[in-house]
Write a structure and sequence with these properties.
The protein has about 120 residues and is of the alpha+beta class. Helix content is about 20%, strand content about 25%. It has one domain: Nucleotidyltransferase, domain 5 (2-Layer Sandwich), CATH 3.30.420. A 4-stranded mixed sheet has the order 3-2-1-4. It is globular, with a radius of gyration of 15 Å.
């Protein structure tokens, strides 16, 4: 069961393109069951890269059901005037960052679940 804030984002996402700016929300975790990180970003318009990005991490509770995280993510999107919302269907991949937490071109040593998986096709 996911928190009401995630369901509301998914409901808004189903409405499709509603104009710019676009708010994106992606969930990450050590496997496909537990989301330990959520990243929200704002893309102001076509041919423009993201202008705002924020990350939240689990504090013992899956971020998808954490009410504090939910309030902060929805506030972030609202503050930046996101008219269109895009949300990953499931957990998008490992929460660790290539070149920051482990060497580029290698699998994350902390998340063996994702080592042989294509996150774009197996979400």
């Amino acid at each position: 069961m996911f928190g009401p804030w995630k369901k509301e984002l998914e409901k808004r996402a189903k409405k499709g393109f509603r104009g710019d700016p676009i708010g994106t929300v992606a969930f990450y975790g050590p496997d496909n069951k537990y989301a330990s990180k959520v990243v929200a970003a704002i893309v102001p318009g076509e041919d423009r890269g993201l202008t705002e990005l924020r990350k939240w991490f689990a504090n013992g509770l899956d971020v998808r059901v954490d009410p504090r995280v939910g309030r902060e993510v929805t506030t972030f999107l609202r503050q930046h005037g996101a008219r269109t919302i895009v949300v990953t269907r499931g957990i998008f991949g490992c929460p660790h960052e290539e070149e920051i937490d482990y060497p580029a071109g290698t699998a994350c040593p902390h998340c063996p679940f994702w080592a042989e998986r294509d996150r774009f096709t197996e979400v």
